[in-house]
Amino acid sequence: MLRVHFPTKPYKTYSFERALACTLFHLGSSGDYRETAHAFGVSKAWCIVNVNYIVQVLAAMRSTCIALPQNPEAWEDVVEGFSQVRGFPFCCGAMDGTLIAINRPRDFEGWYNRKGYRSVNVQAVCDHKKRFIYFDIRPGSWSGAKIFQYSWFGRNIDRRLPRGHHVLADSGYGVSPAVMTPYSEKDGGGRLSRAQTTFNFKLSSMCMAIEGAFGLLKERFRILKKPLEGRTPKASVRVIVACWCYIIC
Fold first, then answer.
1. Mean pLDDT across the chain, nearest whole number?
2. Domain shared by 86 and 11, yes or no
3. Whole-model pTM over 0.85
4. Percent of the chain with pLDDT strictly greater than 70
5. Which domain does 116 fall in, by range?
6. What's the short name of a Pfam family annotated to this entry (predicted)?
7. C-beta of residue 190 within 8 angstroms of C-beta of residue 75
C-alpha cells in the first residue's frame, strides 16, 4: 500500500525498499541524516528528501492502524483482555500522556512543560495489548485534562464507548461516567479505606498498559528520546509516524 505512493521521479535513484529502510533507521536511531545516509550508502540529500517523503505518507495513513474498535465484538475483546489482568470490568482502554522534547519553536511560550523544557504532550489511549487506539498531540504546557477536554476523543467519548463502559486514567484527569480515576485522600476524609486502597492498586496496575506502551515506543524509536529537530509540525509528524510504526512493526 505504501509502495504506490513512492515517486518514480524525480527522487527514485534507489529502490523503495532502501528508502523505507532509511526511514525506519532514522526513526529508530538518533534521527541524524548523516548517520542514516552513511549506514545505507546514499547521499545525505537523497536521504533527507526520501525520509521526509515517506514520513509524510505514513502520517497520512495513520488511521489505517490507530483507530478505536469499530464494532461491539472488537470492543468486547479489549474489555475481556483488561478483565483478565486484574478482574477490572467494563474497561475499554488506559489513557495517559508523555512528553516529547522539541527544539524551540517560533511561538515557544506555550511549549514549555511543567518540568521546564520545550515539548509536545502526547496523550494516548491503548488497549490491553499496549496498542495505541487513539492519540492526540498538543503543546507541552497543556495538562492531560486540558488535552482530553479539547480532543476529539474527549468530546465524543460518551458516544464512542459502549454504554456503561469507561477508560482508566490517573488522578490528573477528572472523573466522569466514561473516565475512571483513583480515589484521593480527600475522598476518604483524609484517609483511604482498605477497599479504596485496593481499588487504587488495581486501577494503577491496569494503567501500566499505557505506561508500558510509551516505554516500548521510545525504546523502539529512539529519535523520541532527544529533542526533535525542525518546526513543531514536522516534529509532531515524526511522533505520529513513530506511533504508527509501533503498531505494525
1. 89
2. no
3. yes
4. 92
5. 64-248
6. DDE_Tnp_4
7. no
